[in-house]
Amino acid sequence: xxxxxxxxxxxxxxxxxxxxxxxxxxxxxxxSADNNLKIARAALHxxxxxxxxxEKGSGTVFFSGCSLKCVFCQNYNIxxxxxxxxxxxxxxxxxFLELQDKNALNINLVTPTHYVPQIxxxxxxxxxxxxxxxxxxxxxxxxxxxTIKLLDGYIxxxxxxxxxxxxxxxxxxxNAKDYFEFAxxxxxxxVRQVGDVSLDDNGIIKKGVIIRHMxxxxxxxxxxxxxxxxxxxxxxxxxxxxxxxxTPMNKSADYPEINKPISEKYYDSIINYALSLGIENGFIxxxxxxxxxxxxxxxxxxx
Length: 303
Hints:
The chain has helices at 50-53, 76-79, 89-101, 116-127, 145-150, 167-174, 179-194, 220-234, 264-277; strands at residues 37-45, 58-63, 85-87, 107-110, 135-139, 157-160, 198-199, 205-214, 239-243, 282-284. By secondary structure, the protein is an alpha/beta fold. Its cofactor is [4Fe-4S] cluster.
C-alpha cells in the first residue's frame, strides 16, 4: 500500500528543527524518531480539561520522542528517553477504533508532530472503518504552519501549548531560539482551519482550538505577555487553559530558579490578570495538581 506524505521523511523538515535526515533509511533527527511509529500508551484518560475528558474519558495516544524536549518535561521517559513500542500505521488505525469501542469521547494525539505523515494515513484508514469521534492534536506548539496545513480536514480540535513569549526562555529551557515565531504562526493556521470552539449539548468539544499555558516559576511577566497575545489575536474565539501543575522533574534540578512548584498566590494573580482583560472562555486548575500521580503510567497499555 502506498501512503501519503511519507516522502517528507526522506529529508525531514516536518518540525522547526529542520534536521534534513532521511528517516526512511533509519536515520533519526532531534525528535529521536525514524519512520517507525512508536507509542507508549493508548488508553482512556480522565485528567484533561472537562470538555476533553468528560465522564467517559479521552482516548489518548502517547507518542514516543519529541521535537522540543523541555528540561522540565514530566513525560521525559517517553519524550526524551524514547520509551515505547514500534507499531505499524495499520495498527495505529486499529488503536483509534479500539478506543472508540471503549466509548472514548475523542482520539487525543499527544506529542504527534514528528509522526504527522503516519498519523494522516492512520486516520484515513480508521475513518474508512467508521471512526467518527473528534480527533485532537495535542502538541507543544513548536510546529511549522506548512505541516499543520497538511492536517487540514483531518483534525477537529487543536490543543497546542504556548509555552513562552520571550525566546530567551525557550532557548534556555527548550533549546529553541525561535519558539514563539513558529508557535504563533502555527496557532494562526490551526484557528484558520477549525474556527471557533464548538461544544455539544453535554459540554464536550467537537471543534476549535484550546491553547494551553503552564505557568513556570519566575516567568509571570512572560505569562502575561502570552495572555495578551492570545486575547489580542483571537479574543474569545479560542479557549485558554491556564495550568498550575508544574512539577519539578527531569533536569529541573539543574535550573534552581524553576526547581520548585508555583505558589497559589502566583497562580491566582495570572487568573485575575486574564479576567481583567476580558477573557471569558477557559479553564483553570484546582490546587493539588502538583503531583507525579497525575502523570499516566507509560506501560504500553493498549499498544
